[in-house]
């Protein structure tokens, strides 16, 4: 009888741990460095983030360092055939306190695929005075409003990419 009770407690504990693990959203980004060409370095932070409907988005912030210039771009990749970006619409970024920022469309004239959007954050990220989570209001062709939540841990890594990587 005691053995049966212990087995049930063990099974319930395992099921609870699995349920907790399935409901957490993993959003750890990783900084990487690449040589695009001689003298041209690219650093990027890449993370997969799920939206509220459960779709996974690839979120890639990269810093390109050319001799004499630096640029920051945010690439967003949605599920093919489900999401299409509306070009040349800007990306709206909602920061702490409801501060609204806008990033211009880097793929205004051509995009590698309909589900890929890229936006210039060179002038946007330095305007973030606090390091808190962000909301991205994605400019999609569908009438559905899609907001992607960027967790604070990712924003911290983005700020490191802006301030520490040269």
Averaged pLDDT: 82
Biggest sheet: strand arrangement: 1-2-3-4-7
Rg for CA atoms: 20 Å
Please report the distance between the alpha carbons of the first and last residues.
66 Å
Give the helix tally: 2
Low-confidence parts? 22-27
- The residue fraction in helices comes out at 10-25%
Report the major sheet. 5 strands, antiparallel
Query: Topology as H/E string?
Result: HEEEEEEEEEH
Record field, number of beta strands = 9
Task: Briefly note the structural class of the backbone.
Answer: alpha+beta
How would the global form be characterised?
A: globular
* Beta-strand residue fraction: 35-45%
What does this entry look like structurally?
The protein is an alpha+beta fold. Helix content is 20%, strand content 37%. It is built from 2 helices and 9 strands; from the N terminus they run αβββββββββα. The chain has a 5-stranded antiparallel sheet with strand order 1-2-3-4-7, with helices on one face. A hairpin with a 2-residue loop joins strand 3 and strand 4.
């Amino acid at each position: 009888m005691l053995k049966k009770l212990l087995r049930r407690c063990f099974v319930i504990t395992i099921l609870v741990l699995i349920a907790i693990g399935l409901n957490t959203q993993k959003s750890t980004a990783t900084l990487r460095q690449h040589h695009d060409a001689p003298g041209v370095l690219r650093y990027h932070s890449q993370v997969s983030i799920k939206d509220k409907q459960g779709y996974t988005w690839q979120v890639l912030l990269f810093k390109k360092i050319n001799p004499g210039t630096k640029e920051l771009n945010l690439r967003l990749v949605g599920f093919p055939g489900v999401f299409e970006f509306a070009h040349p619409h800007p990306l709206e970024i909602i920061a702490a306190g409801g501060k609204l920022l806008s990033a211009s469309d880097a793929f205004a004239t051509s995009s590698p695929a309909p589900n890929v959007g890229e936006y210039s954050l060179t002038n946007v990220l330095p305007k973030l005075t606090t390091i808190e989570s962000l909301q991205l209001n994605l400019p999609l062709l569908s009438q559905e409003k899609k907001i992607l939540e960027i967790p604070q841990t990712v924003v911290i890594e983005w700020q490191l990419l802006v301030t520490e990587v040269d």
